[in-house]
């Protein structure tokens, strides 16, 4: 039987197994982070689009489609390439000076609402042309700013996804 030289170079089997275990835990953790980030981003985008549909309905209620009496309305709107269904319930407030309205928004093929907003609205006879134009300018500015923020967050996520792919390639190369 040969006697083993203690100064031999190389890793023992236990060291290799421990290193592979640590590497596999790291890869699994990174993969779970990527998946949860993607799901969170998708849900955030859906909620944002539903909120925009509700905001559009509120703008119309304040300007063009003013309710003259309590009413329930529903309809559909295309936003973000998807068909959204909205429902409005408009009731008189206890003070009779306000309308309370609830706007609920959901995707066409979903049963539960993605976004619901409750608002009180002061009843008045109408807006002047200047008030309508100012409202439209402000809403346009908000839409542009919101669009830029959404675009920036989507670009950031794409960059992060590409970085994770590069990391996976490096890990694969290092393993080989």
Beta-strand share of residues? 15-25%
As a percent range, the share of helical residues equals 55-70%
Query: What would you call the structural class?
Result: alpha+beta
Q: So what's the oligomer here?
A: single chain
List segments where confidence is low: pLDDT < 50 over at least 5 consecutive residues: none
CATH architecture: 2-Layer Sandwich
Gyration radius (Cα, Å) is 28 Å
The strands making up the biggest β-sheet line up spatially as 1-2-3-4
Count structural domains: 1
CATH superfamily: GSPII I/J protein-like
Number of strands: 4
Large-scale geometry = elongated
Question: N-to-C terminal Cα separation, in Å?
Answer: 34 Å
What count of helical segments does DSSP give? 2
Q: What are the key terms here?
A:
Pantoate--beta-alanine Ligase, Chain: A,domain 2, about 180 residues, four-stranded antiparallel beta sheet, elongated, alpha+beta
Write the topology of this structure.
Layout: H1 13-62, E1 71-79, E2 82-92, E3 98-107, E4 115-122, H2 129-175
Helix pairs in contact: 1-2
Task: Please give a structural write-up.
By secondary structure, this protein is of the alpha+beta class. The protein has a single domain (13-175), classed as GSPII I/J protein-like (Pantoate--beta-alanine Ligase, Chain: A,domain 2, 2-Layer Sandwich). 55% of the residues lie in helices and 22% in strands. The chain has 2 helices and 4 strands; from the N terminus they run H-E-E-E-E-H. The protein has helices at 13-62, 129-175, and strands spanning 71-79, 82-92, 98-107, 115-122. The protein has a 4-stranded antiparallel sheet with strand order 1-2-3-4, with helices on one face. Strand 3 and strand 4 form a beta hairpin. The radius of gyration is 28 Å and the shape is elongated. The mean pLDDT is 83.
